[in-house]
Fold:
Amino acid sequence: MKAVKNILVIADKPKHEQRALHRALDLQKQTGANLNIKAFVFDSHVANGNAFAGKQRSKIKHELIAKHNEWLNSLLKDIDTCGEVTKEVIWVSDIAKWVARHVSDSPQNLVVKSVNHTESLTHTPLDWDILRTCSAPVLLCTDIAQKTKPRVLAAIDMSRHKGKRKKLNKKVLNMAAYFANTKNAELHCVYTVEISQVLKDLDMINPKSHARVVREQIMPELEEFLAPYGVPADRIHMPVGKVGKTVSKIASQIRAELLVLGTSRRSGVGALVVGNSAEKVLRKSHCEVLAIKL
Structure:
């Protein structure tokens, strides 16, 4: 795949831990990429309220931007960088829409944004909006420390291994392999074998024997597909169940540091979506997630 040369970093709010920035700085050390840091500020009372006259509204807006610039400059003052870093404070209410437009106008290889982490990964409405509208790969990073050898898990779909699905699988694997190489991490792959609930309920199939047959049929094709990426058989996972549960479970079992998965595009002009399976995986994953669109 093409090297990651340009990374758009969505800075966390002041007084937060700035996980996105620190993750992007690590990536810069590994890849030499240029960092394009954007900090966002907006106050609806100033922008739309009736309490301020036009000139006063403009003055307050510029003062808020200036304060944010001071904070951003102080944040980067003592940070060592390994490449070009640009920064800018943006006054906008719809961050996701701005990011989508910016990525369209100035192509980025990667967008990095942090997410909150409590007992489970908590995605904010902004996370989902960016995932649904941004055409570039989006890395949602966390602060979970990995105590084992780093592992990258690529989730692919062999059930529709043709056309667009095949192309998306390759994009997922290319990006997963790239990240694995930059961190000297093990590359794993997961494909979920889904069993028809209707046929199961009607006792028309035996779930265990059916899953075994599917695995035997798919494995040769899967091994051939993964051969260029150097993924051995013991790192190929084929769990049985629903994608939303099994992919997250495998990521947890192998203690993956990063999960790379593909998301879908709905028909219609620019109608990007996450997709039901991908959205379920994202809601249950405890590691960093990199979402790739076709």
Remarks:
- The radius of gyration is 21 Å.
- Residues 1-143 form a domain with the Rossmann fold fold (CATH 3.40.50.620).
- Residues 146 and 257 are 7 Å apart (CA to CA).
- Residues 54-77 form the longest helix (24 residues).
